[in-house]
Design goal:
This protein is an all-alpha fold. It has 2 domains: about 55 residues; about 200 residues, Orthogonal Bundle (Phosphatidylinositol 3-kinase, Chain A), CATH 1.10.555.10. It has 16 helices and no strands. The radius of gyration is 23 Å and the shape is globular. Pfam families: RhoGAP.
């Protein structure tokens, strides 16, 4: 079984999971064809068969559709963020909430040396991905390796079709890092955050709050804001594919963005209405 998950991981790592999604889509197309065939059979019998036989054919079609959708869930990984967020606020993916809740469930987890920096077993990370894509979130609670959980959470954000901080804002957010004085920089970051789609904004806030709680144990886990920024910089934002860029320079700037978001979290995410009241 471990070998199987490792092989599947190698498929997905080649093209960020598009292979697996394509296999899922192929399965869906096959079921559609099968249903079409059933429908044709039902129609061909309509003139000669008894009404009960036609109804039975329709029942078979409905049953097959129901069975398929019950066993082939829409994947969680590799999709657009808004597609995996609940409709009501806070619009944070259920998988992200469950992962963070489990990571924070005890102090031992939070004190783990190299939390988020150390890599978990790749085949186990892929196993969680596959189970979650089948809507089995219980696999998160059953995981015994904290690095596998943190690795799964990082993988989720890396495989989003559009990064948490959208590509369209990439240049603007990098430019914001160089703005002076500090007050002007904070204002620009606040404007950027407020212009994010609701699911992006609320998920970003939820994740940053979690990472700040991780830093509260930095004496034990050695994960200060700078270290977390190195891990999450390239994970939360990246340049548009068609844009020419220097990967090394981008990486430094991406890290800087996340470090500012963490260090200036309170001022960037503060409620303007609350500020006016005070």
């Amino acid at each position: 079984m471990e070998i199987g998950y490792a092989i599947i991981y190698s498929w997905s790592s080649i093209d960020d999971g598009s292979n697996m999604q394509s296999k899922w889509k192929q399965s869906r197309e096959n079921i559609y064809k099968s249903i079409e065939d059933l429908a044709k059979i039902g129609r061909s019998k309509k003139d000669t068969a008894k009404n009960g036989e036609v109804q039975n054919s329709k029942f078979q079609i409905r049953s097959k559709i129901k069975r398929f959708w019950n066993t082939n869930k829409e994947p969680v990984f590799g999709r657009k963020l808004e597609e995996v967020c609940p409709a009501a606020s806070p619009r944070v993916p259920e998988f992200v909430v469950a992962c963070v809740r489990e990571i924070e469930s005890n102090e031992e987890n939070m004190c783990t040396d190299g939390l988020y920096r150390a890599s978990g077993n790749l085949s186990q990370v892929q196993k969680i991905r596959l189970e979650v894509d089948q809507n089995n979130l219980s696999v998160i609670e059953n995981s015994t390796d904290i690095h596998v959980l943190t690795g799964s959470l990082k993988l989720f954000f890396r495989e989003l079709k559009e990064p948490l901080i959208p590509c369209s804002m990439f240049d603007r957010v990098l430019a914001a890092c160089s703005i002076k004085p500090r007050e002007s920089k904070i204002k620009e970051f606040r404007d950027i955050v407020h212009s994010l789609p609701q699911c992006n904004r609320e998920t970003l806030k939820f994740l940053l709050e979690h990472l700040l709680r991780v830093t509260q144990f930095s004496e034990r886990n050695r994960m200060h804001t700078a270290n977390l920024a190195i891990v999450f910089g390239p994970t939360l934002l990246w340049a548009p594919a068609e844009q020419a860029h220097n990967i090394a320079i981008d990486c430094i700037q991406q890290n800087h963005v996340v470090e500012i978001l963490l260090n200036e979290f309170k001022d960037i995410f503060e409620d303007n209405k609350a500020k006016k009241k005070t």
